Amino acid sequence: MYDLHPHLDAEVEPGTNILLTGPPLAGKRALCLDLLASGTENGEGSIIVTTKDSGDRMLKQFAKRTGYEGRPVAVVDCVTKQQGDEVPERNRVKYASSPVDMTGIGIQLSEFLQAFYQDRNIAQNRVMLHSLTTLLMYSDLQTVFRFLHVFTGRVQSVDGLGVYCIDSSAHDEQTLNTLKQLFDGVVELDEEGVTSVRLADS
Question: What is the span of the domain harbouring residue 126?
Answer without folding.
Answer: 16-193
